[in-house]
Predict the 3D structure of the following.
Amino acid sequence: MVPLIGRHDERRVLAELVAGVRDGRSGTLVLAGEPGTGKTSLLDHVAAGSPDLRVVAIAGVEPESCLGYAALHRLLRPWLSGLDALPGPQRDALRAAFGHTADGPADRYLVGMATLTLLADASAPEPVLCVIDDAHWLDRESADALAFVARRLYAEAAGLLFATRPEPQSPVAGLPTLALGGLPGDDALSLLSASVTGHLDRTVAATVIAGTEGNPLALIELARTLRPGQLAGVVPLPAPLPVGELLETHFQQQIRPLPEDTRRFLLLVSAAPPQNPALLWRAAAELGIAAHRADPALSAGLLTSTLEFRHPLIRSAVYRGAAPADRRRVHAALADVHDPEAEADRQAWHRAQATIGLDEQVAAQLERASERARSRGGHAEQAAFLARAAELSPDPRAQAARLVAAARAQLVLGDPAAAGRMLDRAEPGLDQPVARALARQARATTAMYSGAYGAAPGLLLGAAESITGRDDALARKMMFEAMQAVLATDDQETMRDLARAVLASPAIRSAPPTYANQFLIGCATRIAGDYQAAVPIMRGALAALETDENLCEDGPPLAVISILAADDLWDDEAGRRAWDRIEAYDRRSGALGTLRATLAVGSTWELRAGRFEAAGAMQDELADLVNMLGATHGEHSQRIELLAWSGRETEARSVAARATVAHHFVRTSMAVLEISLGRYPEALEWLRPSLERDKPGAATRALHEIVEAGVRSGDHRAAKAALVRMEERAPVSGTPWGLGLLARCRALMADDEQAEELYRESVTLLGRTSVRTELARSHLVHGEWLRRRRRRADARVALRTAHDMFSRMGAVAFAERARTELAATGDRPRPSVASSPGGELTPQERQVASLAAAGATNAEIAARLFLSTSTVEYHLTRIFRKLAITSRRKLAAALVRS
């Protein structure tokens, strides 16, 4: 065994990570390098040097890379007895992922949380180090779960070490990474010298090191392969040297001289599930391989005493170097010895790998396995099973249907390119209406992934119309998705065509009053021009979101539906109640993917209520969640609303400039900023598209802004158009929010005799709502109107109210506008300054502190914030120290002081 030579910097980094784990902290590191750079040696070095840690090691295996959650199951096997102690949703998700129950698909983020909780619990008695070699061969579901855990580890006394080849699309990309290249000259020479038993010529050594670029495994294997005369410089070296991509070939050359049964046994080991010796020996018996046939491979150093390969590349060399017929025989043997009940999916996969040509029986077995994979949330496994089933299908219709289903699974994984390829292959066999419709639906989703929202509504509507009368529920779902897509575009003609088609569809006449159906019908009615008829339908959608026992986040995020409906109705009360229900559902069910949208919408409601600090806390949690999921925060456009209202001009403009599409949210937020700064023509330019396109929710949000910007910039035509629309709709909705804004807009355009009464009406009506930002603005414009009529004393009252409200909120630019107006009345308020809530506490510490102050237990805080209880305890310790308190009872008062 050649000792580990060099890699001093890498060893230091690894030692620091392990020391942190010993001290109760957590750490993650990815060793990324080409084959042979020493990743496995470093992992072995760390494991051997950590006897006081519980080290659990696994390696990704190429033949298992399509079996969902297979690697995660192997990693967590020592702790699965603790499953029952997990929080209910986490426990159920992990059981579903491992096929222990058939309760429905496992949410992949909940599986990640369950894994985190298991590791955190396991590390309580002793620190834990998980070592994952060949991470590039992990199945997609396991890799996603482990990457999730790696991003959430904080204070659990647990470490994760990955070794992988450099792959930009790897699930562990973005984690702390240490790149490994070849060894530097002196270390490479030391390693080569240690690997050679005879004389090593200096010139030969330099040639070998240069030819291998210091690749450690290449150096070691060349030292074993080259003849003593070649190493001594007596016999010329082979040209080119057998290195680089030829390492697998080199191992194959070592395997070739072995006896036939030994080679077959090595092939069996390469294809069999790791760490399952009983199954391995049953398969060996099936193939007629005696146990002693493993001895030559053990003697050659290809296998360890535990029947594992000495290096992961040997596994690849064995499997890839085998003849296809030999691989099929081995897979057939493995299929025969798997339990048809407990291991039906593995059996199906091995049977498929053992089959050549067409075989409907095997294809059907794979299709059934794909359904079980889907029920576990194993969408990558589902796609792989269906793609292989399609290859084996003798019937073109069955083949096409399986390819479409595989494409839909790829879309769930977020791989539209793979989905598109499968749909192309399916096209010739699509002669059934439902199959064609599902393919069109998948095409539409593929288009939306690439940003081509304009193509999606037509595809989805065509698909829906083709199956109306055959599957009305699916047709309505497709129309709902079409509405979602068209609302993301600026295509008015398509939006109107879709609305007419929805209202005329026979599938709509039989629609039950679910939130999705009512939102679809309400939007279509509203787009068709009948706002009055749309109001009760949209109210029904909000009521259903508040009360429906069958909420399900399987389409557009529910929070987005709720705020579009609430904004179009100016109904803050119903909108907030619906949001409260959705947030509780998302947290309880662990729907972390849609919780992103839910937090963004919640931030808007907090902002409207004047609670800018709470809005900022939700934005901070959203950013933390995005990081935890390994996603990108895009253009951070959701934060622009808070930036605009807070008067943070430079940051808001930076976000707007980075936005690839200036959608209505960005436009309206920037208009608020411009209005707060008194730049009314600029505000109106941001708002004009909303007036022209009149999309549900988006246009309503902008109408009162257009009136103010139009009046102040002298564009009375735009102001009048927006006011007319408000006068048609606000009375129909009849909410204090809508009527209060209408009164203010009328006052801005009214004669002096009418204006004051309208301003007072606006203040009274908005005072009945939770929308404190708009109440403060009504006080502000009323005060400005009073000052211009030289009623200074009255103006001061309104302006002081506005200034105080804006200052308390943190709406700096609006507060400054009120201060300037007050100064013109002879009052001298202090200049407004940006607030900096939170003292020394980090955003996450403030979240933990707020929940603890409200009486939540550590376990409840951990479940709500998707942390481990150890991390919550760690945060509370720091919070107590920062706030100079010793008890939870003092938290509430300390938070107010901070």
